[in-house]
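seq/struct pair 1
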Amino acid sequence: MIFHRIFLVFLVVVVHADYRDPIYPIENPCLAILTRLAQVSADFLNCAVTRSRPFRLCEGCVTSYGELFDLINLLTKTYSDLDRTITCQQFLESYDSIQLVAQMITFVDNVWSTSFCLRGRIVRWVLFENERMEKGKAGLMRSQKDDILRDDITRTIEQEKKGRRERANINACKMKNPEDSSPSTSNRSHHRCIASFHDVNGTIYSNLTTDTVDFFNKKVKFDLCLYNATGQIVPTVPIDLNVTANTSVCSACVTTYNDLNDLFLKMTQENEGVCMDLVDTMNYTRLLWSKIYACRRHDPDYMAVIGISVFIPTLVLVFYVSAVFKGKRKLDKRNKKRFHHDFFLQANEKKKNYLDVKKRLPRRLAANARVDTQTWLWSNPNE
């Protein structure tokens, strides 16, 4: 009889059980997700720090990132109450002021996005949750115990609507005035290492972009060329590599190095940002090529250098010599002009003085004339 009652109770529990929760029959699934979230976030941080030098975050930590991404999406689909009105996201973030979970997610998202690993960000799950809460806002308003939570959700939804309207207005203005937008900058994007990733039965599979695969293939060819020329394996961080200058390395591997460097320059010109895995790899490659092996990408044209070195001083010398001769000619011309002016001025002065003297009667002749006149007047006419 006792076993019969126990069987009936078990049958009732099984029939009325709710299997829609992702991790049933745990009593509080949000705490279980929180425990798993702590483990996965710790794995991601450990992977990120371990692969910080040389930098291989995008390629090496995509598995931890994918698991963390799945858990964060699970927070928006799992509920903490029987009424299915409060998600685990709200349960873990909306009831404390520190918000450790939100800060952890933001930190991981910033590390991943600033490294240009994958297009898209983890924090988009917040927007997805806002859209879902907007549809179910009528049901939430019937609950009187979450007034503060409803106000926060409503405020967030209104801000999101306002932001969408502003972005729509900006896009409409750009469509009306296409000359205001520069296609050279609007079409530029960020280069990503990871094309996509997906979860298959708990296993994360990822795909690299075509440019990333091409870049690493060229890097392998360059490393193989260095190994064939030197007999040494190229280290991942070539700082403490003790080698001597080897001209055979520069001549033998210049083609593979130029191919690798040209591809990287092309990616930097076509995109505003490049995946940090590729940037760090190229930085160490350039350090190895220019500093350690003392190679140059292009051999200088010494004839051009010598020609320029001779042409510029010659041009300066010709300029100064011509300036000196031209200045001397101007000075001689000015002196000659001044001499002619003084000569003609003196000649005119002499001519003028001569004419004045000629017109004027001398004093001695005038006195003699007066004496003769007086003598003639007082003399006897009969004599």
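seq/struct pair 2
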Amino acid sequence: MYESVHVHVVYCFEKINEWRGRVDWWMFCLNMSTKYIVSALVGSFAIAYVCDYVVSDKKIFGGTTPRTVSNKEWWEETDKKFQAWPRTGGPPVVMNPITRQNFIVKSQDS
């Protein structure tokens, strides 16, 4: 009887060590893959930034910046125009996204 218990305990310890080895291996793989994934993401963002800068700011394909973007006076006049508009609000509405119909929400008082 004691022999079978001893064999069972030894078997359990062997399995525990086997699983611990597998977990260590998976953690090693996870750490290695995390390193590669993070470096690939950082590298892709760097490449995207450089491409955006070269195409948009340096204008390698030609073109010019619109006057409305580069002219500070135009921005100031546009801002004055938007600030001068009267701010009026209608009744609150709820939109049904399926039929794309708007329904006026009645207040609880009326």
